[in-house]
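B., you asked whether I could sanity-check this one before it goes into the benchmark set. Here's the sequence:
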Amino acid sequence: MGQLTRGQRCTFSVVYNEDFKQKVIAETIGKDKSVASWKHRCSSNEHGSYCYFHEQMLADSRKERLHKKCTFAVEVKNCINRYR
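And here's what the prediction gave me:
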C-alpha cells in the first residue's frame, strides 16, 4: 500500500471532503479502493472530515523519527559488546 505522497494527500482531502465515492477517490489519487477506505476509517476526524494539514504534519514527524540516528546508553553498549 505504501504512504501517500504530499500531492495525493492534498488531492484526497479535496475529493474526500466533496463526498465522492471511495472508488472515484482511489482512481483520482491513483491507488486501490482499499487505500481510500483505509484513509477514510483511520484518518478522518471526529466530524468525519479529512484534514490534509494534520495528516501532512503526522507524515513529516514519522519521516523525522525514522531518519533519526539510534543511540544507546553506555551500559547498553557495554552489554552488547560483552555478548559479541
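One thing to flag: The first helix runs from residue 6 to 17. Otherwise nothing jumped out at me.
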